[in-house]
Amino acid sequence: MIASPMFSGNGYLHYTDEEVMRRLEDSKTELDVEFRSFAPQGVLVWTGTGGGDRLSLQLRAGRLELRLNLGSGEARGIVGAELGDGRWHRLRLIRSEQEAELSVDGGPAVTCRAPGPLRQLNTHSGLYLGTPPSSLYLHFDLLACNVQFLDLNDWTPLSCTGVSFNGNIVPTP
Fold this sequence. Notes:
This protein is mostly beta strands. It is built from one helix and 14 strands; from the N terminus they run ββαββββββββββββ.
């Protein structure tokens, strides 16, 4: 058995490590996450501010929704179906400047393009896996899930410094 973080609705991992921030704020980002969700709605990955640059991956009615804002407006894309089924799924996000491509379980990808001239993701909030705290003055749907794997630009930050955790570590078969 492998131990993995489990979020019961209001839990999260919060990465603030300098290396994580550098990789997030680069003009190119590749993110791979293996997750298992027990709910059809909620935040899985989030970084950003309330009204400016942000990137989020959220389950909406069992489908994965990408929202990307580089400061000039928001782009959205939706992929997958029935991802709140309690089974393990793997998402892959590739962002190169304004273009973003999202796929789940190796299926067809959705592509979207952030509007305007800006090309870099400028966030200073760190990277959240799970539902960010309400102290960010934003409303989020709560998500119950496990996360088993995280890769950010060919680097696995699950054991880096600058990580705070609000949730449980559970054995995963």
